[in-house]
Each structure stands twice: as C-alpha cells, then as structure tokens.
C-alpha cells in the first residue's frame, strides 16, 4: 500500500495516527489494527541530498528481495545510502557532503528519526519511542566496506603473513562463497581469517580474509578479485545474522541494503547470488534491497518488488511500482521512442526466436513495428499482460498478444478461473513445450532420428551427441523437466565456444520444417492480432 493509500484508508475509517507525507506530518485517527499496516514499511523522506531534491519512499518490511533501478543519475545509490542511515552510524559528511537545508527522515509506525544539516554539522533527532530495526549496508565501490584496509602499506604487511597467523573461516562463508562464484561449495575450503591478535597488531579495522591456494600460496583479501571481496563482505555480515538468528530472535525487522552488486560479478554468479539471497531472506525474514541496472538480476524478481526511479522534466524523482523488468530496462518501446504497433509477450528467448522466424517466413512483419518481450514464467506473462493493459503502459494504438509454451496449456483455464481479472486476455500457444522439455522428448523419451541427426551433424562436432546422452542417462535417474539434460548439452556447446543461441536456432529450424500445421495456426493468430 502506498503512503497516500494508507492516508485514504485512515481517513475513510476515522482512525488516529501521525503519518509523514510530502514533507509534513498529518494527524489522523487510528486503531491498533491500522498500526500494523503502517509498521509494514519504513517511510524515508529525503530532502536536498545530491541529485534528490525531494523524495518520499516506503521500504516494505515483508521478507523478500527488492530492486531499485533507473537511469544513471536518478538517485538509486543516494536512496540506498540515505535509507541505510536509519541503522548505520555512517560519517554523514563523508557520504553526503555539506548540503544546505538537507535532511533525511524516517518513520516506522509511530517511531521517528531524523538527520539534518544545520550550522555546518550533521545532527540527529529521534522520537522518544525507539526505532527498533536491525540491518546492514554494503555500499558502492567508493564507500563500500569491501575496500577498507587496502592501503599499500597494509597490503605489504599482509604479504608477510604466515600459516600460523591464520584460522579457518566460518563454514557458512566458505560454502556459499564457492557456490555463488564457482557453483562449487568446496572451492574455498582453505579460506581463512587472520586471528584477532595478529589483526590488532596490524591495525586492521575489520575481519580480514586470506585464501590458501593449491600450491600453498597465501592470497590476502586485498589481493583477491573485486567479486571475491564483494561476496566476502556480504557473506560476513549475513553470517553474523545467521549465528544470531540461530540463537534467538528479538522480533525486530531486519533490512539489508546493497549497492552496485552487479559491477563485480559474472552474470551466472549474479544469478546464483540472487537465488541465495531469495532463500536466505525467506528463511530469516529479511527485506533485502539493492540498486541495479542488470536485466539478468531484475528477471529474478517479481514486478511488485521492483521500483523504477526516473527524473521528471522539473527535476522531481518519480517512482514506478510495480515495474516489470522489460519496462525497467526500457525495452517496452522502440529505441527511437516511437513505440510499436504490436507487443508480443512470451515466456523465454526460445519463444521469442520462434515468433521472429514465423513473422519473417510468413511475411507478417511487413510495414509494422513489432516488439517481442520474454517475461519469464507463464503466470508472470499473463499478469504482465493484464497490468500493461489496465495501467495504460502501452502507447495509444499499440496492440498486445500473449503466446505461452504448449506444455502449460491445460493449467491455464484453472489459473484464469481463480483470477477472474485475467479472463479478458486472449492467449495462444507455441507448437512446442519449453526448450528443456522439447529436448528431453525428442532425444530421450521418444527419440527423433531426424532431430538427433540435425544436432549431431551441425552442432555437436567435438564430442558425439550419443556419448553425451549416454553420460546423461547414467548420471540422471530423475529429470522430469529436462533441466539436467539441457545442462549437459549447454556445457558441451560452451566447450566448443558456442552458446545457447546456436542450439535454439537449430530447434527452431526443425520446428518450422516439421510442424507446419501448428506454425500456420500461430501465424493466423498473429495476423488476427494485427488486424483486430
């Protein structure tokens, strides 16, 4: 619920509460039932901090991961760093400078806290009721904790470390560092920390890590990669929470702010990090917020948890929520800003390529602008179609089509019947199920000699496809969705310096040559969408 929504709800029901809205306090009537609604979020009001002249933003405290995205200079990192001052005793002048008439205010239920710059100093002011909240902040490259203790003098001292100066790092950190960065939980089995006595003698300001390589070389944390430093910093903070929550839980909300996490991580590691954070947030009741530009990262988050910041013509910061990944990355419209005649929503890249091939081969895409958007997951595709049409996100005259994978066709009616608002959405289906299931059906369940020959001849030229399939069958007894098989094939393809697109291209070529009736049905559907 938005702030204004809360206020309208309060007014309607004659409750009493003090709500911070648009730079002023509004006295309202409230009962304890509504207090829990207000306490479900931290309201953060920012005034005259860097590029943000004025912004009111509500951070939900429901467990999960949330993304703050937007164009460069829209205030993402500033919002994150301002919000972290609710629990993080940061040096305000270092982070925010000396801006005139600047302030950062918070409200959580009836508790309030404020930072303000006056007479050349930053001061804090809080209500008598304490703002009970836990959390941690991992900042940007400039302000992040991961680059503390990286002076050349310190690095030279760390280069002289001996094995006796070290003790094993926490299993939680070693295991998850390996899983996230290398998909191997034993990769950092020899990760250590400098023992406290040696650390104090060196004048280190934080726990410092060191990895022992296979040839017994000691690599101190400042000499590790940026990605390793980033993950170690985040995992170290989460480990403190992990140990605390294992012993007790004080009932306080716990919120985590992460800034620019994608800058140091490969896309595969970034995806594993997000999956890890999702699971951790659910298990330990965390609200995790991060700023990002990454489409890979945004695809892992539901639209309701994505906040898109943009700058209006008058310099004001606008917040769009919910926001879909395609919209957040400016893929919803044409690059030249003129929009499209037809937007086709599909589940994944395979569906996108199938539709593109049909449009070209059937000469449907002549004199018309069509944008095909993979949205990820069939329920998400239907939901996005509904939200896009009801929220008027499409430009006037733009039509929308929804095309889902064949294997979920029987599930759609039940989903629609339990979500009546989607009943008006017209849906069609691809002639095949998901890519993973299609490969499993054609190569394992009911082997297709023509399809096998196509892949073996034109793609798997390093190692025979039959040998790959035998290895897969030996190692996988259960693989109902075909994901394990897909992993085997993809690993082999990448070893030849090729990628998923090469496999998809051959699958699409086979479909177009061997399923004419389904292709024609889909082509007719697209023509009708254009003409209606």
Proportion in β-strands: 15-25%
Strand elements, count: 21
**What is the 3D shape?**
globular
Helix content: 40-55%
How would a textbook summarize the main sheet? 6 strands, mixed
Account of the protein in words:
By secondary structure, the protein is α/β, with parallel strands linked by helices. Helices cover 40% and strands 22% of the residues. The protein is built from 20 helices and 21 strands. Helix 12 (349-361) packs across helix 19 (500-514). The protein is globular. The chain starts with a helix and ends with a helix. Mean pLDDT is 79; it is low at 1-39 and 141-150.
Task: Set out the fold topology.
Blueprint: H1 3-13, E1 15-21, E2 24-29, H2 32-38, E3 41-49, E4 52-60, E5 64-70, H3 76-84, H4 92-96, E6 103-108, E7 111-118, E8 121-126, E9 134-138, H5 152-158, E10 166-168, H6 171-182, E11 191-194, H7 196-202, E12 209-212, E13 218-220, H8 226-247, E14 254-259, H9 267-284, E15 286-291, H10 295-298, E16 306-311, E17 317-320, H11 325-328, E18 342-346, H12 349-361, E19 370-374, H13 378-390, E20 399-404, H14 412-418, E21 427-429, H15 435-445, H16 449-458, H17 465-475, H18 483-495, H19 500-514, H20 516-531
Helix pairs in contact: 6-8, 6-9, 12-19, 16-19
Structure keywords:
single chain, alpha/beta, 20 helices, 21 strands
Short description:
With 532 residues, this protein is an alpha/beta fold.
């Amino acid at each position: 619920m938005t702030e204004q929504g809360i206020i309208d709800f309060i007014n309607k029901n004659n409750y009493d509460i003090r709500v911070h809205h648009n730079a002023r306090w509004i006295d309202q009537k409230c009962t304890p039932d509504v207090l829990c609604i207000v306490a479900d979020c931290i309201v953060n009001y920012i005034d005259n901090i860097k590029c943000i002249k004025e912004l009111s933003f509500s951070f939900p405290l429901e467990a999960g991961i949330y993304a703050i995205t937007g164009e460069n200079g829209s205030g993402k990192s500033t919002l994150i760093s301002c919000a972290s001052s609710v629990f993080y005793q940061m040096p305000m002048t270092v982070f925010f400078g000396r801006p005139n008439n600047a302030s950062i205010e918070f409200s959580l239920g009836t508790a309030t806290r404020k930072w303000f710059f006056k007479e050349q100093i930053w001061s804090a002011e809080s209500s008598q009721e304490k703002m009970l909240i836990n959390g941690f902040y991992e900042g940007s490259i400039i302000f992040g904790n991961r680059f503390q203790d990286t002076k050349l003098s310190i690095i030279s001292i760390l280069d002289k470390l001996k094995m006796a100066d070290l003790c094993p790092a926490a299993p939680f950190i070693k295991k998850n560092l390996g899983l996230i960065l290398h998909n191997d939980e034993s990769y950092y089995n020899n990760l250590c920390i400098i023992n406290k006595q040696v650390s104090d003698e060196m004048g280190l300001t934080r726990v410092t890590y060191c990895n022992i390589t296979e040839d017994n070389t000691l690599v101190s944390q400042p000499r590790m990669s940026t990605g390793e430093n980033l993950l170690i910093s985040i995992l170290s903070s989460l480990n403190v929470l992990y140990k605390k929550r294992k012993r007790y839980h004080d009932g306080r909300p716990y919120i985590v702010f992460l800034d620019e996490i994608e800058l140091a991580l490969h896309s595969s590691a970034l995806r594993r990090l997000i999956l890890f954070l999702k699971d951790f947030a659910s298990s330990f009741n965390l609200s995790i917020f991060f700023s990002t530009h990454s489409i890979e990262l945004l695809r892992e988050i539901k639209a309701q948890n994505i906040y898109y910041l943009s700058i209006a013509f008058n310099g004001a910061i606008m917040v769009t929520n919910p926001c879909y990944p395609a919209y957040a990355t400016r893929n919803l419209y044409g690059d030249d800003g003129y929009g499209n005649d037809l937007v086709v929503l599909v589940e994944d890249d395979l569906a996108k390529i199938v539709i593109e091939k049909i449009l070209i081969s059937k000469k449907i895409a002549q004199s018309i602008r069509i944008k095909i958007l993979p949205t990820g997951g069939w329920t998400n595709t239907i939901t996005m179609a509904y939200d896009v049409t009801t929220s008027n996100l499409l430009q006037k005259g733009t039509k929308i089509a929804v095309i889902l994978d064949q294997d979920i066709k029987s599930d759609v009616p039940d989903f629609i019947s339990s979500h009546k608002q989607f009943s008006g959405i017209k849906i069609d289906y691809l002639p095949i199920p998901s890519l993973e299931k299609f490969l499993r059906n054609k190569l394992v369940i009911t082997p297709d000699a023509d399809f096998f020959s196509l892949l073996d001849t034109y793609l798997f030229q390093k190692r025979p496809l039959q040998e790959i399939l035998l290895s897969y069958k030996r190692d996988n007894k259960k693989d109902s969705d075909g994901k394990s098989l897909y992993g085997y094939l993809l690993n082999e393809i990448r070893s030849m310096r090729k990628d998923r697109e090469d496999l998809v291209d051959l699958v699409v070529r086979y479909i177009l040559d061997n399923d004419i009736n389904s292709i024609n049905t889909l082509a007719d559907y697209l023509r009708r969408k254009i003409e209606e």
